[in-house]
Design goal:
The protein is 5% helix and 41% strand. The protein is mainly beta. A hairpin with a 5-residue loop joins strand 11 and strand 12.
């Protein structure tokens, strides 16, 4: 057991940043250690070390705590066979508190506690679909604001009045139905949700005792898609890629002409932002194109069914020939499958590859925008000088 004493000068929403690694484990092999965390003997939660033997900072909310001294305890639970016996290295522990006077207090106060999925065992998330980061966005609405929390696979919404009090709470349930929250609360009033399906939707009926209070420390970056959050946590790309290598049959010899999944280093990652305006193209079905050595390759292979078309669908990938580097890419284009009735502006936020360890390389293009119209539904957004 590891203990860390800390002091809070004022009551509020406490947090801990835990730098941890588990020597000898790898997410590619479906191995992960679990660390059980509690504060003063209560508010227990579990941290899944999905990044294995790489030292990684895992940020967790500790719930509402009073001012004064507290003790944070870390231990390896012995009731999880896949984790029992693992060794965990604690690199550092940082603690802090978001007090009631902080502008972000409402964001922290209403963040959900997520109970891990347990459909095929006591803790499915120990080998697959582990929740990694919670982020949020705050959108002004008449009489208050809509506060929306997002995980990789689910989100929980709250509507606040001007004083930051909850007017209503909703979550995305099975079959992607929007349901009113009627479940329990924990850790000082936080809504409790249970991952309920293989595709990550949730319920407010708890079935699994293991849970995570992911800290809502990051907002969706202004002017960027949801996936822009991942640039702040580049290790998530690696964890995701290792799970793909373990679970998805991949082409042995990647071909840009094939829709079959390939090693993630065979793709150009493209993040876009649909710009506001009279006709922002919110649901416009789009296809991205990348020019490599005078040949264009596209994200949807010319099929509207593979276009990115939803309001939050603003990121995609393009499969390119093996060995392609940034220097080989000479142009990036965007096409609307349905020519828009009104002009729609879209900005290229960033384009990048993954490196040999499946981490994002520095962007090689970004910032340029294009206007798609009925007369010009396809535009080249960026060209190499």
């Amino acid at each position: 057991m590891f203990e860390h004493a800390f002091m809070l000068a004022a009551p509020g929403e406490a947090w801990a940043a835990l730098t941890l690694d588990a020597p000898g484990t790898s997410w590619r092999r479906g191995e992960a250690a679990v660390v059980s965390v509690d504060v003063d003997g209560g508010a227990r939660q579990e941290v899944i070390l999905a990044n294995g033997d790489e030292s990684t900072e895992y940020l967790r909310a500790l719930g509402r705590l009073p001012a004064g001294p507290h003790t944070l305890r870390l231990r390896i639970p012995q009731d999880l066979p896949l984790s029992a016996g693992r060794v965990v290295t604690v690199g550092s522990v940082r603690t802090g508190c978001v007090d009631d006077s902080d502008p972000a207090a409402s964001v922290w106060r209403h963040a959900p506690v997520i109970h891990y999925r347990a459909l095929n065992g006591p803790l499915d998330s120990l080998t697959s679909d582990a929740p990694l980061v919670l982020f949020y966005r705050l959108e002004p609405r008449a009489g208050g604001a809509a506060l929306e929390y997002h995980l990789i696979y689910s989100h929980e919404d709250a509507t606040l009045d001007p004083g930051g009090r909850v007017i209503g709470e909703e979550f995305q349930g099975p079959a992607h139905a929007t349901l009113r929250f009627g479940g329990g609360r924990s850790m000082g009033g936080h809504p409790v949700l249970q991952v309920a399906t293989l595709n990550g939707t949730v319920t407010d009926v708890v079935r699994c005792p293991y849970r995570a209070a992911l800290a809502p420390a990051t907002a969706q970056p202004e002017g960027e898609p949801r996936e822009g959050v991942l640039q702040r946590y580049p290790w998530i790309y690696r964890v995701s890629a290792l799970e793909v290598l373990r679970q998805v049959p991949l082409e042995a010899d990647p071909s840009p002409a094939s829709e079959a999944a390939a090693d993630l280093r065979s793709y150009v990652f493209l993040q876009w932002k649909r710009l506001p305006g009279p006709a922002p193209g919110t649901n416009l079905p789009l296809e991205a194109g990348v020019r490599v050595r005078d040949v264009w390759y596209t994200s949807a292979w010319g099929s509207p069914d593979l276009a990115f078309a939803e309001p939050d669908a603003e990121s995609t990938t393009v499969k390119v020939p093996a060995g392609t580097t940034e220097a080989d890419v000479t142009g990036i284009a965007l096409r609307a499958f349905d020519p828009p009735a009104e002009p729609a502006d879209v900005r290229l936020v960033r384009a990048f590859f993954l490196d040999g360890e499946y981490r994002p390389r520095p962007p090689f293009a970004g910032g340029a925008a294009c206007r798609l119209t009925r007369r010009e539904p396809r535009r080249v957004v960026w060209e190499r000088p």
